[in-house]
Amino acid sequence: MKQKMKDLGDFPGIAENLPCCFYITQTKEPFGLLYANEEMLRLFDCRDFDELYRHVDGDAFHVIAMDDRARVKQEIVHELAERNDRFDHARGHLFTRTSRIRYADVSGRIIETQAHGKVCYCTLQEIDIPLPGVTVDRDIRDYVISHLDEAIENHWIQVYYQPIIRTLTGELCGMEALARWVDPQIGFLAPASFIPVLEQVRLIHQLDAYVLEEVCHMLHQRLNHDLPITPISAAATLR
To answer: Is the peptide bond before 132 cis (omega within 30 degrees of 0)?
Structure first.
């Protein structure tokens, strides 16, 4: 597969050294990845073409993260039918080999080849616009992913307790545990800066487990000192 991905001889009219990130895929299932240029390796943090191929499991639709894949595929198929074998600006997020999150705009067109029949020539452009409702700086995303273990180990992530007051009596009836990241290098990180990142790369369970452990430790200390305790809500802990 490595040789096939590096050889553009089967695809006349496509320049190998274009500065943009592009790849070529079969137009029918299993949508095999036929070619990827050097910029694709950079975008997906892959060291060589074999590693990229393994990362996407040989399926070109797997360059898009699973959460977006069905939507992006539907958009592409619809546009190809409506726009004479072309599509533009299908947006979704990517997971790189090192679990970074990148957002991309993908466009493409179907071309005819002798060796492979109809193939789809696609370009990927990294963009800074994330999914609707989530705005996280790319550098912050990368920092969160690479420093999560360190933040947990060094307690840079702190648990704050928000009281819940019963309106009829005015008495405290519970608390919500809230995670706040206070980083020694970049300062305070709002939950909106790291919660969506951890959810998207499927590391949120590490934060959940850490907050649960911190809550249990706090309750244990209060019990040991005969101090009153109250229920702690986890439903909104990390929001």
So the answer is: no
